[in-house]
């Protein structure tokens, strides 16, 4: 089933927060008036249906990144479909919740990190909505929305989490965990945490003009520590402790949102980004990008 089109232009009116839940966050049971909706997308199947509901006056759209029962591996996630779905559901801002490993002594398991930078070491994953017949280049210098990230960090603290504001996320391919040599190399590069799913998710959110924030839940120290290595049992144990805090964080976020959403610079990230002349654009690709880039494609046709 196709969801209704947004009733207001992005960047004005009320907030509608999209939440992509990572490992251990497979539902948002705290949503009121919740309804599950299957949304079709021209980019193939998303991770699953979305749950649309509210917490108080705030609207939320939730999706489990790995699908029900954690059936989709990191390299199998259809990020383009997931982001396209969020746009079709009228989301104004996107919060990603992810399980991460720590590459720093002071980022201990159980703590939360409001990530603000990324190093992408993934491969073979579609990196863009655009391509031959419709070329675009967006800025990704600051890949996270500072306003949204600050609100999420405040909400995590209100939920009782120990929060580190800022940190560089190394996106690895997976599904295996790092070798010890890789883990130590990533520390030398300046990475603070490591995970398998934030890229190309953050890239695609920017192309879709969605302000994006990632809050990472530390489950383990990566393999850089002498004599230690990552075990799934250890990760699962930490995830169980973090999951309830993450849900409480979302509830706190609902109460912290300003009553009216003022525009974000990300709302217009595609302004000036389209390189292909209107007469040379692939009409098939233009049609596929109706939800993601219709704002600029319609205007510049």
Summarize the topology.
Elements: E1 16-21, E2 32-37, E3 50-55, E4 58-64, H1 79-88, E5 93-102, E6 112-115, E7 117-120, H2 146-158, E8 163-165, E9 168-171, H3 180-188, E10 193-195, H4 201-207, E11 212-221, H5 232-256, H6 283-288, H7 290-300
Parallel strand pairs: 1-4, 1-5, 5-11, 6-8, 7-9, 9-10
Antiparallel strand pairs: 2-3, 3-4, 5-10, 6-11
Give the mean pLDDT. Answer: 91
In CATH, what is the homologous superfamily? Nucleoside phosphorylase domain
* Unreliably modeled segments: 1-11
Q: State the name of the first-level CATH class.
A: Alpha Beta
Radius of gyration: 19 Å
The CATH architecture classification is 3-Layer(aba) Sandwich
N-to-C terminal Cα separation, in Å? 29 Å
Question: Would you give an account of this structure?
Answer:
There is one protein chain. The protein has 301 residues and is α/β, with parallel strands linked by helices. It has a single domain (16-300), classed as Rossmann fold (3-Layer(aba) Sandwich), CATH 3.40.50.1580. Helix content is 27%, strand content 21%. The protein is built from seven helices and eleven strands. The chain has helices spanning 79-88, 146-158, 180-188, 201-207, 232-256, 283-288, 290-300; strands spanning 16-21, 32-37, 50-55, 58-64, 93-102, 112-115, 117-120, 163-165, 168-171, 193-195, 212-221. Strands 1, 2, 3, 4, 5, 6, 7, 8, 9, 10 and 11 form an eleven-stranded mixed sheet that branches. Strand 9, helix 3 (180-188) and strand 10 form a beta-alpha-beta unit. Helix 2 crosses helix 5. The chain is globular, with a radius of gyration of 19 Å. It starts with 15 loop residues before the first strand and ends with a helix. Mean pLDDT is 91; it is low at 1-11.
